[in-house]
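Retry 2 of 3 after timeout on previous attempt. Resubmitting structure tokens to design endpoint.
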């Protein structure tokens, strides 16, 4: 289920950028804490998970063709309270993360509704509903 319901209550909500440990693709035993946009929930094996997309402040516009050849697709989402330096961010559309409540460590900020809607539409093109 995908929805936009951010609330400033300290709990994760769809539309919010939160922080979570994200494993590296090349070595899932390693990873780092990074911002993740929550887009909704998914039921897997009888449990509810948060569906999320990781963010980065690295600009992939310069190497978009290379990224696409590698199967990585990015979308600009602007700046927000998730980055203390207020750097422009991009969301990775092709890598859907599944997170449990206990894997989300702190609340970041909410994306504006129009940006969230564009991200969800682009992510659906990659993952379906």
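Retry 2 succeeded. Sequence:
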């Amino acid at each position: 289920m995908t929805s936009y319901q951010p609330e400033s209550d300290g709990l994760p909500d769809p539309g919010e950028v939160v922080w979570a440990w994200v494993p590296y693709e090349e070595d899932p035993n390693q990873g780092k804490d990074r911002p993740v946009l929550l887009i909704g929930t998914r039921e897997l094996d009888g449990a509810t998970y948060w569906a999320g997309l990781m963010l980065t402040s690295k600009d992939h516009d310069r190497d978009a063709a290379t990224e696409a050849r590698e199967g990585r697709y990015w979308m600009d989402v602007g700046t927000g309270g998730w980055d203390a330096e207020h750097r422009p961010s991009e969301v990775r559309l092709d890598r859907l993360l599944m997170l449990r409540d206990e894997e989300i460590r702190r609340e970041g900020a909410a994306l504006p509704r129009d940006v969230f809607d564009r991200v969800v539409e682009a992510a659906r093109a990659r993952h379906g509903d």
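Attempt log closed. The chain has a mean pLDDT of 92.
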